[in-house]
Amino acid sequence: MIQKEITEQSETHEELMLKLYTHSINFNLKPENEYIELQYFRLQVEALKSGPHHKPYEAMLNQALLYRLIFILLGSLFFFFGLFIYEQSINWLPYSFIFSTDLTAKNSALTICLLLSFAAFGMSLTVSPQNQALDLFAKRTKRKLNRIYNKQKFLIDLKKAKLLKDIFHDASDKVNEIKEEAKMLFSQITKSNLPDKKMVSKLYNEALLEANDHLHLIIKKFKKNGL
Fold first, then answer.
1. Helix crossing, 158-191 with 197-226: angle to 10°?
2. 27 pLDDT band (50/70/90 cuts)?
3. Distance of alpha carbon 6 from alpha carbon 111, whole angstroms
4. Relative to the CA of 88, which of 39, 80, 121, 226 has its CA 20 to 30 Å away?
5. Distances (CA, A) of 59 to 49, 62, 139, 173
6. pTM of the complete model
């Protein structure tokens, strides 16, 4: 009951903020701007926070489902290939160069197929939208750190270059720490078994946005300390 009232109050607050935001937009849009409708649309997206950068969990759903499907298909392919090898004779294989008998070659090939199949099925279970989005944020942050580091190390002397390298490694370690903390939070959200799917999605989005904010702070701090 309390959660429902909080949700209703939050929705009412968002509607009020949207009306005020829209009202201010109408005054800020200049008539000489030839892209008024496009600008108005973008401002509405920001006001409603409906853009993909505001909802990274939903933005990565399709990609995560695609990756999961690919791993399932690969697992099924290796599994059925293993069944095929089990049912068929493999005397036609040049097993004599590697194995002593055709049975040894057959069992080895079957084992490899089953291992690859189980590995693919296992990887399909680890794919999730929140982890995909988090990996994207972390990789983007590390690319920016590398770009800043490579640019600055040629502009300073050797003594400062060593210090800059240490700061760079500390920043990279911090990125990994934030990533692990976010994954632990994801695990807690998953284990909470909330009945409201929208609330679960909202928690994933907020956890991702919080992690992304921390990653942006790492970049800003590295820029400041590196100069």
1. 170
2. very low
3. 55
4. 121
5. 13, 7, 17, 27
6. 0.66
